[in-house]
Design goal:
This protein is of the alpha/beta class. The protein is built from eleven helices and seven strands. Strands 3-2-1-4-5-7-6 form a seven-stranded mixed sheet. Strand 1, helix 4 and strand 2 form a beta-alpha-beta unit. Helix 7 packs parallel to helix 10. The longest helix is centred in the N-terminal third of the chain and has 17 residues. The two termini are 34 Å apart. The chain binds S-adenosylmethionine. S-adenosylmethionine (SAM) binds next to helix 1, helix 3 and strand 2.
């Protein structure tokens, strides 16, 4: 995608999602996508698109949710996945072709400034709305792409304290390293917890022009690794702890074994017989475009 297709303030997050974060997302796909799926399924359970609906999947990543939405709306409906990272969309297209899903399409675009060719009945996002530099502009753009009365359902992380695998890892890493003041690596913008606060996400959606807001809290135990080493690899790569380590890069090489040892000890109580599990918590935020 040309840089003209991305808002200047989203260029850095785009570089991150198309580069190091794509590698992490793909490398840990089995665990991160199945956890995302669990929260997405909970959000869709009692607020799903209707058969025949045209659906927009915001920040669709590798596109399994777009395929799921396409199946929910059936052959008369359609699901369109949008993501700013070319590599995510390339992966999503491959997966949908492999699964031979006919009523699905994908587009590389920055949702904040995209000009959608279609009008949608329903917009969904599974952890795809927290990285916009200007979330009000982005969600206003989504609202404009919905027909009057169109429905929105976005899944976002709730507060860190209720997502202990990420929060505990962040706390442990902070004993060794603070976020560096200078770094060359791109960051992912406001970050995964930018819509965690109920008042903040409500205000963003109201300012974006949505009505009839409802927040449903979803608490789920999720698998965060096949074993303790795997879970520690994950938190050292993703989320707030992963980001601090990534920003330090090679400058933290010497201290990494110590950090790793502390994480192995600090997360040991999350190990169960077959794998590593932790509590997690999201909002499914529902709203309507004015009718
Ligand atoms: C945490 S991932 C979630 C991916 C997917 N929804 C899932 O649940 O597996 C966040 C996604 O949002 C995308 N994203 C970030 N900023 C975006 C923007 N401005 N426009 C469109 N997509 C964006 C990223 O490229 C990334 O694929």
């Amino acid at each position: 995608m040309t840089e003209a297709g991305v808002a200047p303030e989203n260029l850095e997050a785009t570089e991150a999602w198309n580069g190091p974060l794509f590698d992490v997302w793909q490398g840990f796909q089995a665990v991160v996508v199945s956890n995302a799926r669990a929260h997405g399924d909970a959000a869709l359970e009692d607020h799903r698109p209707e058969p025949g609906d045209r659906v927009l999947d915001i920040g669709c990543g590798l596109g399994d949710s777009t395929v799921q939405l396409a199946e929910l709306v059936g052959r008369e409906g359609h699901a369109h996945g949008v993501d700013v990272a070319e590599r995510m969309i390339a992966g999503a297209r491959e997966e949908a072709a492999r699964a031979s899903v006919p009523n699905v399409s994908f587009e590389v675009a920055d949702v904040q400034i995209a000009q959608f060719a279609d009008t949608y009945d329903y917009a969904f996002a599974r952890f795809g709305t927290m990285f916009f530099a200007n979330p009000v502009a982005a969600l206003r753009n989504v609202r404009a792409a919905l027909r009057p009365g169109g429905r929105l359902n976005i899944v976002v992380w709730r507060r860190k304290l209720d997502n202990e695998w990420l929060h505990r890892a962040e706390t442990i890493v902070a004993q060794f390293l603070e976020r560096p003041e200078e770094y060359e690596e791109p960051t992912c913008g406001p970050g995964p917890f930018s819509m965690a606060n109920a008042d903040t996400v409500t205000d963003i959606l109201k300012h974006a022009g949505f009505e009839r807001l409802e927040l449903k809290r979803q608490d789920l135990v999720i698998k965060v690794g096949d074993d303790l080493e795997h879970a520690v690899d994950l938190v050292m790569s993703i989320g707030p702890a992963g980001e601090v380590l990534r920003l330090w890069g090679d400058r933290a090489a010497e201290i990494r074994p110590e950090v790793r040892a502390a994480l192995l000890e600090g997360m040991a109580d999350m190990v169960r017989d077959d794998a590593v599990y932790a509590g997690s918590s999201t909002w499914s935020v529902r709203a309507l475009a004015p009718g």
